[in-house]
Amino acid sequence: MSVPLADALRQVDLQPGRVYRERVNGWTVEVRVLDDGPSPELAAQVMLQPWVEFPFAAAGTVLARPGALPLSDPPVIPADDGNNE
Amino acid sequence: MIYNQTATHEPIDQGDLIDDCLVLWIKDAQSPPASQPIVDFALRRIIVLTQTCDLASDKATMVNVAEVFDAQDLIDQKLFKAADIRGPLRAGRIWGWYFLPADGALGMGEMIVDLRRLHTVRLDLLRNLCRAGKRRGRVQPLYREHLAKHFADTFSRIGLPRPYETL
C-alpha cells in the first residue's frame, strides 16, 4: 500500500523548528519543520492595516477667495535653552 | 546630502517639498446653511508627511502635508529670533517646529516646518504640481524619518503639569 508522504506526516506530532531523522526501508530520511509562522504571542501583536476611505458628502460648495492666512501660533521656546548654539 | 532632486514624473513620497500647494482657511462660518462660510485660500510650500509605505501601497488618495515657511520670514514676523533657530530649533528641541537647512543648488533658503499647520490634500493635485515642476526637492532618508519622529512626538508627548522637583 502506498501512502502519500503528506498523509503519513499528518499523523506525526511535528514541532516547528525541529529536524527529524529516521531510517526507513534502509534509507535515511530527514524531515525539517520550518518555523516560518509567527508564534501565537507574536501574531497577537501584529498591527492591522485596514484601509477605508469614507465618501465625502459635501453639505455645500463655496468659492474660496485669495486671502492672507494668519500667522502661525507663536513657538514655545524651552526656557532652559538660553538661545545658545 | 539632505535633499535630492526628483524628476517630475516620480511618485509623491514622504519628505517631498512642493511649492504652490493650495491651502484653505475657513475665515468665517456662522451657522451654515443660513449663511455661506467664507473660505480664503493661499498658495504655500508644503512638505509631505504621509508615510512612504502608505504612499507606496497605492491606497492613499489623500496626503497629509505641513506648511513650510522661509526662516527669515518668521524672523521678520518676530515669531523666532535668529538665535532660536541656530539653537533649540536646529537641535529639534521646539515641539511642533522643525528646521530644514538651506540648499543653494536647489534654490532653497533655510526653512521652518510648522507641524501644527497641517492640511489634507488630494494626491492627484500634488501629482499635478510635481508634473508642473513645483517639486523643489525631497528630504532624504534618515533626515525625513527624523522629521517624522519629531512630528509623531509632537502629538504623542505627555506634558506634566509641572516638572518633577529635585532635592
Model description:
The complex is a heterodimer of chains A (85) and B (167). Chain A is built from two helices and three strands. Chain A has a domain at 1-33. Chain A is an alpha+beta fold. In chain A, strand 1 and strand 2 (27-32) form a beta hairpin. The mean pLDDT of chain A is 83. Chain B has 167 residues and is of the alpha+beta class. Chain B is globular and about 60 Å long. Chain B starts with a strand and ends in an 11-residue tail after the last helix. The relative contact order of chain B is 0.24. The chains are: A alpha+beta (85), B alpha+beta (167). Chain A binds chain B through residues 51, 53, 59-60, 62-78, 81-85, and chain B through 23-25, 27, 32-33, 36-42, 44, 57, 59, 61-62, 67, 69, 74, 77, 79-81, 83-84, 86-89, 93-97, 114, 116-117.
Number of domains of chain B: 1
Write out the strand line-up for the largest beta sheet of chain B, numbering strands in chain order: 1-7-2-3-4-6-5
Largest sheet of chain B: 7 strands, antiparallel
Structural class of chain B: alpha+beta
Based on CA atoms alone, the radius of gyration of chain B comes out at 18 Å
Strand content of chain B: 25-35%
Head-to-tail CA distance between termini of chain A: 83 Å
Instruction: Output the number of helix runs of chain A.
Output: 2
Going by CATH, the architecture of chain B would be Roll
User: Given the C-alpha coordinates, what overall shape of chain B results?
Assistant: globular
Helix content percent band of chain A: 10-25%
Which runs of chain B of at least 5 residues are low in confidence (pLDDT < 50)? none
Residue-averaged pLDDT of chain B: 94
Overall SS class of chain A:
alpha+beta
What's the helix-strand series of chain B? EEEHEHHEEHEH
* Helix residue percentage of chain B: 25-40%
Low-confidence stretches of chain A: none
Strand order within the widest beta sheet of chain A: 1-2
What is the CATH level 1 assignment of chain B? Answer: Mainly Beta
Determine the CATH topology of chain B. SH3 type barrels
